[in-house]
Specification:
Radius of gyration of chain A: 18 Å
Largest interface: A-B, 28 and 22 residues
CATH class of chain A: Alpha Beta
CATH topology of chain A: Rossmann fold
Distance between the termini of chain B: 31 Å
Helix content of chain A: 25-40%
Number of strands of chain A: 10
Distance between the termini of chain A: 34 Å
Oligomer: heterodimer
Structural class of chain B: alpha+beta
Radius of gyration of chain B: 32 Å
Shape of chain B: elongated
Number of helices of chain A: 7
Structural class of chain A: alpha/beta
Number of domains of chain A: 1
Largest sheet of chain B: 10 strands, mixed
Helix content of chain B: 40-55%
Number of helices of chain B: 14
Number of strands of chain B: 14
């Protein structure tokens, strides 16, 4: 198992204690393309934050590739995030005053990779995502789809063990959404990248190979979705 | 390093006006610090002109008047030192500390050469005076032992006195080309060294000029030096001396000096039947103590100016800190992204600290540069002028500039200040939690 959660609990103590995750047990294998689906308030964002080492949990165990992720210092957490996890966000989260290529370079900068090396690598990744011509452009000069592809390049450049995508199509129109999901599918298929998509859109979930339903802080049904027939709205569109 | 500066430049470029306004406060602070220190130095230099050339291990004593009755004698009695006091000073009693003892006698006299003259005094002195008072001989020589032994009528003049005698009038019209003037007597160009070997009249006698000394700005008495024995004989001074000057060693603290002075005073006073603790019966001018006090005064002034300067700078630092806090607030989201993709807290902190130090240092240097220019302007204007007090030209500022040491100290201050200014905002930036930062949009 690449990812293993054992009885993970998380409670928020803002005034009234809120038990968000109630004993999550989950295993995800290398090369899986999974979606975590749930309504807002179901605890899926909290789960994503824990998976992404952005937040800590109260009890239980969380392993990435056999390594226990618990009680890390901020520096360790930053280092693990940097080397093991690639993030893709709904709102792209690119740095506005940096060009596309500079944004893609950034994770390597924090690894201490030399200037020329990381520039060369960033250009390679942008090229693979068809954005070589846009390398010198700033995020506000690009379309949503392009921005998200820059973000994907940034997520991939460190060759992470897992790619976590938080509503990756949330800000995109349906056509671009399909393109982005196809891109993720392709990454999973051709490079064996482990990808976890968190979404509340069934169309997006349908693009993945396995759908994990989460409701009120517990894992519900886990459906295999090799055939991509889970969407009630059809198989090849994403309902907006 | 280059990456850090690229980041800083990107950040500053986006907030040019804000950064400049904040930086102005820092520039102003350093500017004030430099100008204050420069002016302070100028004031101190004016005060100390000539003073730095005096040996510090020298004490000079002179007779005064008793201020209290003692041994059946009334107060207000005049104490005249004489050669037995010299002998006492040289005796075993003070042998632990006293090295060389000389005395002097002087009398007022008019010094003339041709038609030119000035009134001053002639001091009968010893060769050792030269070292004790750091008299710098420009031409010829100072008094020597042979002069003393043979009661020679020789004299050492100060340069400005020589100029006066040659009619060059340096003192009254300001130095233009000292030493290169027309001789009023012969109409030829003469230099002060031409006076060597010539005879000048002091009072009723002629003395041969053997040396020209550098004018001493610190003393305003118009004294010419002649051998002790000569003056004593000519003016019939007997055994009385005007002052006793001696070098000493082994007195390195205020306490030791005080103890020695007290002991010495008691011994001399008792010989003159004055109260041993009568401070007015015997004047002691201890140059070591004076120097100590002068240094203390200088340090106090310097410290005071630094404090004022630093407080002025503090305003600028608070400004920088403030602006950095705003920057951190504005960039919370960005820091969240950076942390999510792997920036350690220290990496974020470094970004803010470096920006803070850069702003402080850059604008600080601008201020320092302007401050130094202001000091130079001060030097060229106020530094060259002097005020006339009782016919005496007194410079208010001498060389009111700051040295390289102050520039280095100020650099250090700027870096420390920048770090302090950035510390709080940087810590805040480092504490940004990525989930919260990413949520805030």
């Amino acid at each position: 198992m690449l990812i293993e959660l054992k009885d993970v609990n998380k409670t928020y103590n803002n005034g009234q204690p809120l038990h968000v995750l109630k004993g999550i047990n989950l295993g995800i294998d290398r090369g899986e393309f999974v979606s975590i689906m749930g309504a807002s308030g179901s605890g899926k964002s909290t789960l994503l934050n824990i998976l992404g080492i952005l937040d800590n949990y109260d009890t239980g165990e969380y392993y990435i590739d056999g390594r226990l992720i618990k009680g890390l210092t901020e520096r360790q957490a930053a280092d693990y995030r940097n080397r093991m996890i690639g993030f893709i966000f709904q709102s792209y989260n690119l740095i506005g005053f940096k060009t596309a290529v500079e944004n893609v370079e950034l994770p390597l900068f924090y690894q201490g990779v030399s200037r020329s090396k990381r520039h060369q690598m960033a250009m390679e990744y942008l090229d693979r995502l068809g954005l070589a011509d846009w390398a010198k452009h700033y995020p506000n000069e690009m379309s949503g789809g392009q921005k998200q592809r820059v973000a994907i390049a940034r997520a991939l450049i460190t060759s992470p063990k897992i790619v976590l995508a938080d509503e990756p199509t949330g800000a995109l129109d349906s056509k671009t959404s399909v393109e982005i999901m196809e891109l993720l599918q392709q990454l999973n298929r051709e490079e064996g990248m482990t990808i976890i998509v968190v979404t509340h859109e069934s169309g997006v979930a349908n693009a993945t190979n396995k759908i994990i339903h989460i409701k009120d802080g517990v894992i519900g049904q886990i459906e295999e979705n090799r055939e991509h027939r889970a969407s009630v709205f059809g198989t090849s569109t994403i309902m907006k | 390093m280059r990456d850090v500066f690229t980041e800083i430049w990107e950040s500053i470029r986006r907030n040019k006006l804000r950064t400049c306004l904040t930086g102005f406060a820092v520039s102003w602070g350093i500017f004030m610090l430099i100008v204050l220190l420069g002016a302070g130095n100028g004031l101190m230099n004016a005060f100390l002109t000539g003073g730095e050339g005096i040996s510090t291990n020298v004490m000079q004593v002179g007779g005064g008047r008793t201020s209290k009755p003692y041994d059946g004698l009334k107060e207000g009695r005049r104490i005249d030192l004489d050669e037995r006091d010299v002998a006492l000073t040289e005796s075993e009693l003070f042998g632990n500390h006293v090295d060389q003892v000389i005395s002097s006698v002087s009398t007022s006299a008019t010094v003339s050469y041709g038609k030119k003259h000035f009134s001053g005094s002639i001091e009968g002195s010893f060769p050792a005076r030269r070292d004790m008072d750091k008299i710098e001989i420009l031409h010829g020589r100072f008094l020597n032992e042979k002069d003393i032994r043979e009661n020679r009528k020789v004299v050492v003049l100060a340069e400005d006195q020589a100029e006066t005698l040659l009619g060059n009038e340096v003192r009254d019209s300001g130095a233009r080309f000292p030493g290169m003037k027309l001789d009023v007597n012969s109409g030829k160009k003469v230099q002060v060294q031409d006076l060597l070997g010539k005879y000048v009249r002091v009072g009723d006698f002629s003395y041969r000029v053997v040396g020209i000394a550098k004018a001493n700005d610190a003393s305003n008495s118009n004294t010419v030096y002649a051998p002790y024995s000569t003056v004593r004989v000519i003016y019939g001074k007997g055994r009385v001396v005007d002052d006793i000057t001696f070098t000493f060693h082994g007195l390195n603290s205020e306490k030791e000096n005080d103890a020695f002075e007290e002991q010495y005073r008691a011994a001399v006073n008792l010989r003159h039947r004055a109260a041993p603790d009568d401070r007015r019966a015997l004047w002691i001018w201890n140059r070591f103590m004076q120097n100590l006090q002068m240094n203390k005064g200088r340090n106090i002034l310097r410290t005071a100016l630094w404090i004022i300067g630093l407080f002025t700078l503090l305003g600028g630092i608070v400004g920088v800190s403030n602006i950095m806090l705003i920057t951190v607030k504005e960039r919370t989201h960005e820091f969240g992204i950076r942390k999510a993709i792997g920036a350690s807290p220290w990496a974020i902190m470094k970004l803010i600290l470096a920006e803070s130090v850069t702003i402080t240092a850059f604008f600080g240097y601008v201020g320092m540069f302007l401050g130094m220019i202001a000091c130079q302007i001060l030097d060229k204007t106020v530094g060259q002028s002097s005020v006339s007090i009782m016919d005496e030209q007194i410079a208010m500022f001498v060389n009111p500039t700051v040295g390289l040491d102050v520039a280095l100290e100020a650099t250090l201050v700027l870096i420390v200040a920048g770090t302090i200014a950035g510390l709080f905002p940087a810590r805040r930036a480092a504490q940004v939690r990525p989930i919260e930062a990413l949520r805030a949009e």
